Amino acid sequence: MGYIKSAALEETGYVVLDRYNQELDPQEWLDLEYVDWKSSGDTRFAPLASKDGEIECGGFWSGKTPRTDKDGIWIPSQVEKAPNLVRRAQEPGANVGRCRIIELQPNTYADCLYNLHQDDNNRLNPDGTGWVVRGFFNLTDDKDSFFVLRDNRTDPSVEYRIALPAGAQLIVDTQRLWHAATHPGKDPRYCLITSWTSGPELDAYIEKYNGRTHVPNYEVSQEILEAGQAEQTRRLAARAAALAARGQADQTVMSEA
What top-level branch of life does the organism fall under (predicted)? Predict the structure, then answer.
């Protein structure tokens, strides 16, 4: 039967929406409660909706009542502090699973490439239902930062680099694409991440905000690109060698984040 997917994501695996005027909204993410949860770098997360309505970040498929990343329960203490962020997450009208703010400390392009990962969004997702994708709304004005998307973790021949000023909005099939952010700024980067179920509601939202499957790549010097790729290769080889020395295989797994 297959899953219900958005045609807009078929070609590249992502769409960039019209930029949101983030300056009009308060910085609600600064008042939220964060928990340590590592994903593609030095990160913390502030969940707004979770599996059981608790301030935790675990996958919905874990615990006594496993399910796919759908039907997230809003956390009252967090929702009270961030009503505008919740409104933005709910605006598409699509089913919401996990919804949280990521706080990412500064990193380099090489760090980003080493931390590229895919998300395990659709574990336990019944065939014939909507495919879970993720929305990313950049909250801080990170003009020197960019999102990296690849079809293949170690192949730079197809690499999308999406600029991340305040109000940048994109939707990504993060189970299909390897992804992470490069953030060379001095202060943490904050971004609203929402798991949405594909379907007519999400399609209408993408159309409303003029979702584009191709945008100009954020410009990076060839020197930085080549050095980053070389460092990714070095780090992955070092990791594989260290695991082999312990008699373990180097297995790439999807991220729960």
Answer: Bacteria
CB 140 within 8 A of CB 196: no
> Up-side HSE of residue 181: CA atoms within 13 Å toward CB?
29
**Half-sphere exposure of residue 180, counting CA atoms within 13 Å on the CB side?**
27
Residue 47 in contact with residue 96, Cβ under 8 Å? no
Rounded to whole angstroms, how far apart are CA atoms 81 and 64? 29
Nearest-angstrom CA–CA distance, 129 and 124 = 11
| Residue 72 scores a pLDDT above 90 | yes
Q: Which residue has the tokens 């005027």?
A: 21
What's the CATH code, domain 7-245? 2.60.120.330
Contact 94, 199 (CB under 8 A): yes
Instruction: Name every residue whose Cβ is closer than 8 Å to that of residue 131 and which is 6 or more positions away in sequence.
Output: 3, 4, 5, 6, 121, 122, 125, 173, 197, 198
